[in-house]
TrEMBL record:
Keywords: Chaperone, Nucleus, Transcription, Transcription regulation. SUPFAM superfamilies: ASF1-like. It comes from the Eukaryota. PANTHER family: ANTI-SILENCING PROTEIN 1, HISTONE CHAPERONE ASF1. One of its GO terms (biological process) is DNA replication-dependent chromatin assembly. GO terms for molecular function: histone binding. This is Anti-silencing function protein 1. Pfam families: ASF1_hist_chap. One of its GO terms (cellular component) is chromatin.
Amino acid sequence: MAVTIRNVEFMNNPARFSDVYRFRVTFECIAPLEDDLEWKLIFVSCPGDEALDQELDDCLVGPVPQGINSFEFEGSAPDPSRIPEDDVLGVAALILTGSYRDQEFVRVGYYQNTEYDNEEMKETPPSKIMFNRLVRDISAKPRVTRFHIKWWAPTNSSVQH
């Protein structure tokens, strides 16, 4: 494993549902990488229907030197029109993925709870969802899945004639 995530710090949590996601990713790299790392932020409102997943943003980070590295990432809020009404309130998932050369090497999943910003609306939700009154809170305990990938492919110079 050439890259290991050390920390993901949400800089605006809890926040309004419509706010951007702002966080800092800190990772360690055991050797310099030739190509960029690709990071994606995905919102999963309905676990049974992948077609409803929303990629909120992606970014490339590189060149990546050996050692401890960090970057700040900002992702858009989910598009409310793409979330089934029954799945707006309650728990959803937020997934940060890291890839190198089109190979996913890590997936960090968080639970996000979405609710109204006051007790009265929590207990008696309005019949039509009022997105301007929703707040989100992201769990501090992620679920991390690591995948083994080919970090270093042989170069042409290593082929013997």
